[in-house]
Structure formats: structure tokens, C-alpha cells
Amino acid sequence: MIIAIDGPAASGKGTLAKRIAAHFGLRRLDTGLLYRAVARAVLESGGDVEDPGHRRDAAKRLDAAALRDEAALRQPGVGEAASIVAADPEVRSAVLAFQRDFAAVPPGAVLDGRDIGTVVCPCADAKLFVTASAEARAERRWREMVAGGSDAAPEQVLADIRRRDARDTSRAVSPLRPADDAHLLDTTDLDIEAAFRAAVDLISGSQAAI
Ligand SMILES: Nc1ncnc2c1ncn2[C@@H]1O[C@H](COP(=O)(O)OP(=O)(O)O)[C@@H](O)[C@H]1O
Ligand SMILES: Nc1ccn([C@@H]2O[C@H](COP(=O)(O)OP(=O)(O)O)[C@@H](O)[C@H]2O)c(=O)n1
């Protein structure tokens, strides 16, 4: 079984993907980490993510070991840089096979990102598009950052989320959008437990329909 979970930053897709994978006994791939790892490799080598040569080289050299240092990959600056490298079609095609190979291993997997239901796994057994208002998402991300010791201003976090949303939805290749057959799940007024229960119901409904 393959479950695709897409949505904008801090909508809760990673939290849901982890719990859904445990619930259904599946492996999970956070595909955002791939783009974050490409961006981090460019930044660490003193390169420029706006330079197509730099980001394409980093994408071609990417290996699974680069996904291990999650704390470093989750730094806010890396998320911003990731959305810049992710708009490059050559970067996207360099990481496509890794995602499809991961999903193809039995018994299947949960993948979360921006284009799982539309491009990476268009034949997924169940697709969720997880959203929440920009304000709710910024508040969640801000709380997470403060818990991690950051003194970022809430309005700055909201501005960053809006900028990333705009870049991710407007790019020419694999823009963030719900697949036609995705279930929409708005978590603005749902806590983590309620969102998880709603997600399991939607996925179980998709299974019953197959
Ligand atoms: N439904 C929810 N209500 C409140 N907080 C949530 C909810 N879902 C996730 N969170 C919190 O919001 C933050 C971002 O969630 P995460 O799953 O990492 O989002 P994404 O993977 O979409 O970026 C985390 O700190 C997480 O604990
Ligand atoms: N399948 C994916 C996953 C992430 N991305 C890009 O990678 C960036 C970081 O993704 P992420 O999922 O780690 O970000 P958060 O939602 O956790 O903040 C996004 O802003 C997207 O630009 C993508 O283009 N396609």
C-alpha cells in the first residue's frame, strides 16, 4: 500500500505521516529532507542555491547518508534554500527515482511532500492533501522553533511561511497542489489526535473503495 501525503509547510503532514506509517505498518519517507539535503550540501560547500550548476551538482551527488542529520536539515534557512533548489526541474528529476524506489519496496510506504500524489506516486492507494491556515501553520512552526531555543519573531515566521507557499505553488514544475483524487484535510481547528483520526478514516475509506 502506498499513501501520499502532500501539503504546505507546517500543515502537520510529517506528524501525520509518521503516525499513519506506524498505524498501517509501513515505512515512511519525508521527501522534504531530500531537497533540504541538496540545499544544505550547496550551502556547506560555500555555493549558491540560486546557481543552477551548484544545485544540480549537489543533487547528482546526493546519497541517503545525507538525510541522517535531521536537526541540521531542519534549520529554517535550509527550508528556505530547499524551496529554491526544489523549483529546478533537474534537481527534481535527480531525486525522483530514489522516492519511487522507496515506495516500490513491499509492503509499501507513506511518503510526504509537495508532489507525491501528483507526480511521484500518482497511483498511490490513498492521497491526502493536508492544509491549515497560514496563521495556524506559522504559530505551530514558531512554537516548534522557540522550543528548540530560537528567538525568531512570530511575524517573521509567518512571512517566511507565506514566501515559501508562494514559491512552492507558483513554480512551473511539480507545483504544490492537491491531486484530483486527493482527500482534503484542513487541520486548522484539529489537534494532532483529531487530525490523525480523520486521516485514518479517509485512508480506510479509500481502501474500501478499491
Ligand atoms: N493538528 C495539529 N495541531 C497542532 N499542532 C500540530 C498539528 N499537527 C502538527 N502540529 C505541530 O506543528 C509542527 C509542524 O508539524 P509537522 O508535522 O512538522 O508539519 P509539516 O511536516 O507539514 O511541515 C510540529 O511542531 C507539530 O508537532
Ligand atoms: N516532495 C517535495 C517535498 C519538499 N519540497 C520542497 O522542499 C521544501 C522543504 O520541504 P519540507 O517538507 O521539509 O518543509 P516543511 O513543510 O517541513 O516546512 C519545500 O518548501 C518545497 O519547496 C518539494 O518541492 N517537493
UniProtKB/TrEMBL annotation:
Superkingdom of source: Bacteria
Chain residues that bind ATP: G7, P8, A9, A10, S11, G12, K13, G14, T15
Keyword field contains Kinase: yes
Cytidylate kinase domain sequence ranges: 3-200
An example Gene Ontology molecular-function term: ATP binding
Coiled coil: none
Keywords: ATP-binding, Cytoplasm, Kinase, Nucleotide-binding, Transferase
Subcellular location: Cytoplasm
CC terms in the record's Gene Ontology section: cytoplasm
Catalytic reactions of this protein: CMP + ATP = CDP + ADP; dCMP + ATP = dCDP + ADP
HAMAP family associated with the record: Cytidyl_kinase_type1
Membership in a protein family: Belongs to the cytidylate kinase family. Type 1 subfamily.
Name of the protein: Cytidylate kinase
Gene name, Swiss-Prot/TrEMBL: cmk
